[in-house]
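Regression test attached.
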Amino acid sequence: MRNETALGLAEARGPWARVLRFVLYAALFMVFAGPLLALMVGAFTPTVDPTQFTLWPDRLSLDNLERAVDRNVLDYLLNSFLVVGGGLALQVLVSVFAGYALARKRFRGSAVVLVLILATMMLPEEVLAVPLSVLLADLPLLHVSLVGSLVGMIVPVAAWGFSILVMTEFMKEIPKELEESARLDGAGEFRVFWQVVLPLCRPALGVIGIFGFTMIWDQYMLPLLVATDPAQYTLPLALRSLRSDDQVGIGVLLVGAFLAMLPSVLAFLALQRSFIRGLTSGAVKG
Amino acid sequence: MTATEARASSPKTRVRRPARPAAPVWSRLRRGATPWLFLAPALLLFLYFKFIPMAQAVRMSFEEVRPFLGNTYVGGENYAEIAGSSDFGAAVWHTVVLAVATTAGSIVLGLALALLLEGQTRALWFVRSAIFLPVVTAMAVVAEVWRVMYYPAEGGALNSVLGVLGLGPSEFLNSPDSSLASIAFVGIWRGAPYDMMIFLAGLAGVDRVLYEASAVDGASRWRRIWHVTLPGLRPVFAILLTLAAIRGLRVFTEVFLLTNGGPDGSTEVLLTLTYKLGLERNELGVAAAGTVLLFLVLLVLTVVSRLRRREVR
């Protein structure tokens, strides 16, 4: 009985247990995935008002989609992809650099740096909204404004404490001998980092990749502070302005929400194992 | 030939580790600077987008902020104003109620889900993945879907379900009596699957030998869960409680989109209030005072949780 479960439901045999299991699984599926499925269905059916929101449509249509394109949903989607693409690339780069220093180097002040990184995790954009809005309009010393440009949604998410900590933990596990033999072969600091340590970090890169993607895709406060014009809206931010339409009602909203849901769901399904590994390690590290 | 190859092909200067006492100053300096060079991007970004804003919030909280005219120092006036306002008291209360309800609901439901869905079969794997989808879906999407689900008339999706059960229709977000509970429900809907995954990881770590021992002792299924499984999950509870409490206090997006504090201020939370004060009414100093107060609470909670976690280990 190696794989025994606490409740024993999965091992129970017999027709009743099977029926019970099926009903239970179906019910839970409906409660949690049902609303999201209905969203997908609603995006492709005539759904003028919320009373028509259903899982079993009468007929399918592409009216919502056409109308959504007219309402610039694809532009918002493109903005979202630009922000997540730029933000994630920077975030992964910054995280592997910082993780390398924290995991593979012993230096004075490393403990202080770790405390500072933990402190940043208490300071998400939601909490800092008011001072951030002032700062984004006029960066100290540089005196440039990030308001009204996608850059303002990308640069602030480039450093994320969670990713750095995941990277640090992982890089600590890589045997020192590999690094030393590379150094004996004459490899410089950057080469050790890039060609020896980093290629061994692929599992951790999967973790910070999928987490960073969901984190940036989920950003709401930062685009809210930065965007001054609908031309800069990301798709999640634009949803609020798509709530009604004179032709297809909430159909436009449903298309927008469906498109805003799809990439993160696909990314999760593709990288599920990395996601769950990060979830459990992240929860333990806090 | 690339730069790295060029460096590698002249190994003599690099391989010979400088003998410790005679290390040239610049080489020691370089070695000392290396970790800081690798850390520089992260530290600079954190400085700009976390620490300077925090410092500015502290400064602004003691000032009357007047764009273009220059700020004036007003001492503790902003704090007196925000702490004395009834809006603030109500917002603190709503935030705490929401955080406690969401945290408790997610943990209880998440544990139930984990116990029900623990196992290795393909069907279970499929159901668990489907249940987890709300967690990876952007909060803005979740909020908009639930605004539709909560449609407060008879034909609304959730009201139809309630109708089948002989209940409702409910006003959900539209009535001050049910608005906060409706938001908490959305939080639990998205929080429980998250907690479930953490509990499942915890369940996998419970010693199976103890299960066998309890079976030999003739313990019932429920006694086994109570005496073996739950004690084994204690560290998981501690982690989830503090994590969720901290997350609960900084709730913003779902409230902003579902009700924006309404109706009648019945769902105004700390961050929707400071957002309105700072960015809509332009009372930046007062809003900054609210930010600093929230930050202090988060700080205390985080430090306490860190210390407790150390004890658990």
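Expected vs. actual: identical. Residues 15-65 of chain A form one domain.
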